[in-house]
Design goal:
Radius of gyration: 17 Å
Strand order of the largest sheet: 1-2-8-11-10-9
CATH class of the largest domain: Alpha Beta
Shape: elongated
Order of helices and strands: EEEHEEEHEEHEEEH
Strand content: 35-45%
Distance between the termini: 28 Å
Number of helices: 4
Number of domains: 2
Helix content: 10-25%
Structural class: alpha+beta
CATH superfamily of the largest domain: Probable tRNA modification gtpase trme, domain 1
């Protein structure tokens, strides 16, 4: 499943293996409880992300986080947040099956993404994440390194996004 979708010397695009993902809504005053439940200190600034091994947390809004853990840990995270709910109100929604992740890596990764993403990608720090669009598909864009990104795409939009990335990759290959 993670074989390249398309690539040339300067960029590779591939579907990444599945992860357990959650949308968490919680008051910022209760972040310590959520951090304990996931085993990772949640970032407090919109656009920030943190990662440790197979866990990641990305602040998407003043009270909203995208959480990633290994698929095998999904039930344990749900149980930890269920336990916390008794004293700390929050909403944890499992969105694992709703989205797929497309990895874009290589020196031309930012250039490739810029064909359909309106953000100034140079302003997204390594480790950061932003909710945005890719063409008309809502995505979350995560920057893993200077030349490595992940697009969290709703499953129904993956064929459209993949198609655009394949066309743009071919055009970049001709132009570089």
């Amino acid at each position: 499943m993670n074989a390249p979708v398309t690539s040339f010397d300067a960029v590779a695009v591939k579907i990444l293996p599945p992860v357990a993902r959650f949308n968490l809504r919680i008051a910022s005053a209760d972040l310590a409880v959520a951090s304990k439940a996931i085993g990772l200190t949640l970032p407090t600034k919109i656009g920030q992300g943190v990662q440790n091994a197979d866990r990641g947390a990305y602040c998407l809004g003043p009270d909203e986080w995208l959480l990633h853990v290994a698929e095998a840990d999904q039930q344990a995270i749900v149980a930890a947040f269920d336990k916390a709910r008794a004293k700390t109100p929050h909403s944890l929604v499992v969105i694992s099956d709703r989205e797929m992740t497309i990895g874009i890596n290589g020196p031309a990764a930012a250039e490739l993404l810029s064909v359909a993403c309106p953000l100034d990608l140079s302003r997204i720090p390594v480790g950061g994440a932003k909710r945005t669009v890719f063409d008309y598909a809502q995505v979350v864009l995560i920057r893993d390194s200077e030349d490595a990104f992940r697009l969290e795409v709703w499953r129904s939009f993956v064929p459209h996004v993949q198609g655009l990335l394949q066309i743009a990759t071919r055009e970049l290959a001709i132009g570089l």
